Amino acid sequence: MHHTIEVNDLHFSYPDGHIALRGVNLYVSPGEKVALVGPNGAGKSTLLLHLNGILRGRGEVIVCGVSVKDDTLGKVRVSVGLVFEDPDDQLFSPTVFEDIAFGPLYMGLLEVEIRDRVAQALEAVGLENFEDRVSHHLSNGEKKRVAIATVLAMVPEILILDEPTAGLDPRSRRGLINLLHDLPQTMLVSTHDMRMVSELFQRTIVIDQGEVVSDGLTQKLLSDNTFLEEHGLEAP
Amino acid sequence: MHFDIADQYRHRLSVVHLLDPRVKVVATFSFILTVSLTPTGVWWTFGCFLVLILAVAWLTRLGPMFAVRRSFVALPFVLAALAIPFTTPGSVLFRIPGLGWTISEPGVIRFTSILARSWLAVQAAVLLTATTRFPDLLWALGVLRFPRLLVATIGFMYRYLFVLADEALRMLRARSARSARVPKSPRPPIVWQGQVAGMMVGSLFLRALERSERVYAAMLSRGYDGHIRTLDRFRMMTFDWVALAVVVMVLATPLVVALIQ
Ligand SMILES: Nc1ncnc2c1ncn2[C@@H]1O[C@H](COP(=O)(O)OP(=O)(O)OP(=O)(O)O)[C@@H](O)[C@H]1O
Ligand SMILES: [Mg+2]
Q: How sure is the predictor about A134, in pLDDT bands with cuts at 50, 70 and 90?
């Protein structure tokens, strides 16, 4: 059991020359749930995209004890479930069923297993019997939940979510927070929802201008108002 | 706000709707093939096929005239064949006064047969798309060995046309919100308006490009390896096999009789 995330001295710049990450270090231990906060453009999404090798920077990324390299990508992507910021990016198939079945299908599972996993994933996000729905007719909150189901169906050891509560109404947001609370996986969640952070995560990493500027107990962070203000954050 | 390019599918609880999509695709293509093989001028065969279409339309519970009504959208395409009555040689039926153009009898027969064939084919296609959900139709095409890449491309188009249309709609709104005009002020020059429209199209294109990159990343994240895989979503039941057999028989009989004659 080593469902860990380890990032050592990670640098990344986009092709247009914009430097997005400048030496990021972090370690998340098995089963831990950690929040990743920071102002717009801090590099949160960029960092998350490195954790399953979609983006490749200079430095080292190790997930579940496996270093992210060309020949480990397949293994890494099975163990890391990444939910994108915009559900329209995550849901690319015509129907909900095909979208959730996509991951398990590429894992090479049998048809019966795939059907089971789709049903279980939908149940986990509270959308039983949504299999035949057409993705583009779903509401935004439903899309977000289906997006999470698409990675839950792969039964990942690590869950990475980019702004999961953005655009949700209070009830869907509550449902999502409960879901995240109940899931056993190691979790790294980028968000601007400081109320969720204080409620759900004991530990918070603050990133600003591509650097980790704080990493520690959420309680302690939220009581330091000058620091929060300095990095464009607000206590709930 | 939600953009919907009027989905062709009409939900009913009918035997036709319940059929395996593969059966419906095969039946439709066989029907179109049979109709196009029917010899010119054998009117009773065309009559049989029209009765067949009306019967299927009745079975779908969409109303027997459903396909007939929807088929008229394809009528303008028949204009392409409009020259046939004039150009086919044969006994003169009618002479347009003043112009001296002649309409020949075999020409009229050929033209009417083409009209009948295309009208019947369009009706069959209308019934197929009205009784089969688009994703199921795509799936059936994929399983029936239509080129995978083509089917996948149509699938993405179907999925993202709506997203793109929503984006375009939002941009148009943003533009109208900012282009309030003081009463009696002159209209902005047409060149300027064109430039704005051009920039909007360009920006829409860039957004689509960026989205395609993110979608590809999402596919990679879930293990996509460059090969398109599909899952069996339907299973052929006895009922489906029977329906397929009936369709083949019903199509083959009039055609064979017409050809023998
Ligand atoms: N494809 C790209 N090309 C060039 N620069 C990019 C690209 N994507 C992001 N950036 C830049 O990299 C920086 C980090 O972006 P990133 O999306 O990681 O921020 P973020 O912390 O997720 O912000 P937000 O809270 O707004 O989602 C930003 O300055 C952004 O402009
Ligand atoms: Mg982001």
A: confident
> Are B92 and B103 contacting, i.e. CB atoms less than 8 angstroms apart?
yes
- The yes-or-no verdict on residue B78 having pLDDT over 60 is yes
The per-residue DSSP string of B4-50 comes to -----------HHHHS-HHHHHHHHHHHHHHHHHSPTT-HHHHHHHH
Residues B149-202 have pLDDT tens digits of 888 888 888 888 878 888 888 888 888 787 766 777 777 778 887 888 888 888
CB–CB contacts below 8 A, A to B = 76
Q: Is the pTM of this model over 0.95?
A: no
Helix-then-strand count for chain B, H and E: 10, 2
Q: How far is B97 from chain A (nearest CA, A)?
A: 57
Chain B residues with CB inside 8 Å of A92's CB?
Answer: 156, 159-160, 215, 218-219
DSSP-assigned beta bridge partners for residue A204: A35, A216
The answer to whether B229 faces chain A, any CB pair under 8 Å, is: yes
Look at residue B168 in the predicted model and tell me its pLDDT.
86
For chain B, positions 157-176, list CB contacts with chain A under 8 A: 158-160, 162-163
User: Is A133's pLDDT higher than 70?
Assistant: yes
In terms of Cα–Cα distance, which of A38, A91, A56, A71 is closest to A214?
A: A38
The domain segmentation of chain B, as residue ranges, is 15-144+235-260, 148-179+193-221
User: How many whole angstroms separate alpha carbon A146 and alpha carbon A151?
Assistant: 9
> Which pLDDT belongs to residue A177?
92
Q: Is the CB of A232 within 6 Å of ligand 1?
A: no
Instruction: Evaluate: CB of A226 within 6 angstroms of ligand 1.
Output: no
**More confidently predicted of A236 and A91:** A91
Helix (H) or strand (E) holding B163: helix B148-178
Ligand 1 atom at shortest distance from the alpha carbon of A163: 27
A5-230 is classed in which CATH architecture? 3-Layer(aba) Sandwich (3.40)
Q: Which residues of B touch A77 (CB under 8 A)?
A: 220-223
Of all residues in chain B, the one with the smallest CA distance to A103 is B222
Query: Which helix (H) or strand (E) covers residue A90, if one does?
Result: helix A87-90
Q: Give me ligand 2 centre to Cα B162, in Å.
A: 23
Nearest to B223 among A74, A111, A135 (CB): A74
Structure tokens at A230: 């300095």
Phi, psi of A184, deg, nearest 5: -85, -10
Ligand 1 pocket check for A143: Cβ under 6 Å = no
